[in-house]
Amino acid sequence: MRRLSPSRAGFTLVELLVVIAIITILMGLTFPVGTAIKNQTRTAQTKLTSADISNSIRNYYTDYSRYPVSGQTSAGKDTLIRPSEDNSMIIRALRAQEVAGGGTSGTTGSTGSSSAGGGSTALLNPRKTVYYEGKNATGTGSSARGGIDIETGKLLDPWGMAFGIALDTDYSNALDSIGTDGFYTDFVDQKAPRTGVGVFSFGPDGKLGSKEGAFLNSDDIISWQ
């Protein structure tokens, strides 16, 4: 009678190495896909937030007949707060939060500059109307992203940079600060967007335009398109 050999238990070293290699290859294939999906989700969230802030500022303008910045500017000067600057004074005004002083200076290209800071949000929104609820950012300090930083009051995009905000504070019915000869030169056919409010994010790469230079294949997220 033939005797059956005992069944083999476990894996050999070679088999384990093959399994590990296969898992590594699969992880390498799925990681870029996962990152792309995550960025798509963040981009969609950023578009919604940009639209929400734009509408909130327009509603504020309807009530106050001015924009939520202190010291409205003279002709030829729009307000531009870049992602590297502080948007907290506008956000606090829209949320009816009283915080005295602070803020930042918003600058423009060749059209001059206007201050978005100074004074108090109590003066910017004396009726205490809440135009923007928003949500708090996840994380704190340098790791804060995707909401309002509870420490600084800045509104951050999902990649951790502040949202840029442009306002037509010279009331020319165009955002000259991000149009021709301005911050977003060559972005929209070299024409200033015909709108009173612009909200934007530099997107996943955290840079103005694209890595190729100019704005070819830019991942920037803007509210005026």
- Oligomer type: single chain
Enumerate how many helices there are, as a single number.
3
Radius of gyration: 25 Å
Please indicate the count of domains: 1
Give the end-to-end Cα distance, rounded to a whole number of Å.
Answer: 83 Å
**SSE class:** alpha+beta
Series of H and E elements:
HEHEEHEEEEE
What level of helicity do the residues show? 25-40%
Report the major sheet.
4 strands, antiparallel
How many beta-strand elements? 8
Strand arrangement, largest sheet?
Answer: 1-6-7-8
Give unreliable regions as ranges: 101-115, 185-189
Can you walk me through this structure?
By secondary structure, the chain is α+β, with helices and mostly antiparallel strands. The protein has one domain (45-222). 28% of the residues lie in helices and 11% in strands. The chain has helices at 13-64, 88-94, 121-124, and strands at residues 79-81, 105-107, 113-115, 147-148, 155-156, 164-167, 197-201, 221-222. It has a four-stranded antiparallel beta sheet with strand order 1-6-7-8, covered by helices on one side. β4 and β5 (155-156) form a beta hairpin. The model is unreliable at 101-115 and 185-189 (pLDDT under 50).
